[in-house]
Amino acid sequence: MPSPAAFEPNAPIGAHLREWRRRRRLSQLDFALDAEISQKHLSFIESGRAAPSRQMVLRLAEVLEVPLRDRNRMLLAAGYAPVFSEKPLSDPEMRAAREAVERLIRAHEPYPALAVDRSWTMVSANGAVAPLLGLVADPALLEPPVNVLRLSLHPGGLAPAIANLAEWRSHLLKRLARQVETSADPALSSLLAELSAYPAPPDAPPADEGSGRVLVPLQLRVGEGILSFISTTTVFGTPVDVTLSELAVEAFFPADEATAAALRRSV
């Protein structure tokens, strides 16, 4: 697949805007109305006949809900310096955010919770996750960096222990496909291609077929029983740093009382 305009090193700002507008399924008129500018002005910016101001680039990027990482790219394409920092989690200025994430996932025990970055790499996990990782057959999958989607669907990972693998696989692939479409992230696109190539269960539903459930559970065979979980995702509400904007906490809750009781007994 050729790289979209948003990732071409020397692409002008107009190309970035057209690519993101296409991904958001907006006509030029609809985009102009949402941004409260004239369609003619937008057309001139997209065609390169007009140079947008720094504030205009940021405004258009916000309307398109462009990720912070790519807003920096758009600013560079328009000839401006990036405005959003990208500090590693180890940076002293990120201490408050790190501690917030750690408190959140620890407070979720005895239920599993973990933090992941934009590529679904696990950056932290609470104590309830470790026993579940014991179900992984191939220890190489547990060597850092650990990708939790690969861990879930790889034949040497959790896949053999997932009782509803066909349903869970379909759910994860659709979720990742939506993320690829909204983020235009080539690394996620490669991950989607890799996971889609893993052997599918014979009862795997088509990618566009719903499960009929309100929520899709993760059902893990553990010993003689099955632990059933539903999950939620938590993100920072107003991040102005690229790293924080891409950090998410995946928290798993028991989907039935038997799972809740088993997890409480494990404490």
The proportion of residues in beta strands is 5-15%
Contiguous uncertain segments of 5+ residues: none
Total beta-strand segments: 5
Instruction: Determine the N-to-C terminus distance.
Output: 48 Å
Rg, nearest Å: 21 Å
Strand order of the largest sheet: 2-1-5-4-3
Question: By helix and strand content, what is the structural category?
Answer: alpha+beta
Q: Helix coverage percent of residues? A: 40-55%
Largest sheet: 5 strands, antiparallel
Summarize the structure.
Helix content is 43%, strand content 12%. The chain has helices at residues 13-23, 28-35, 39-47, 54-63, 68-77, 95-107, 130-133, 148-153, 165-183, 186-196, 242-245, 257-265; strands spanning 113-116, 122-125, 218-222, 225-235, 248-254. Helix 2 crosses helix 3 (39-47).
Task: Write up what this structure looks like.
With 267 residues, this protein is of the alpha+beta class. The chain has a five-stranded antiparallel β-sheet with strand order 2-1-5-4-3. A hairpin with a 5-residue loop joins strand 1 and strand 2. The model has no long low-confidence stretch (mean pLDDT 92).
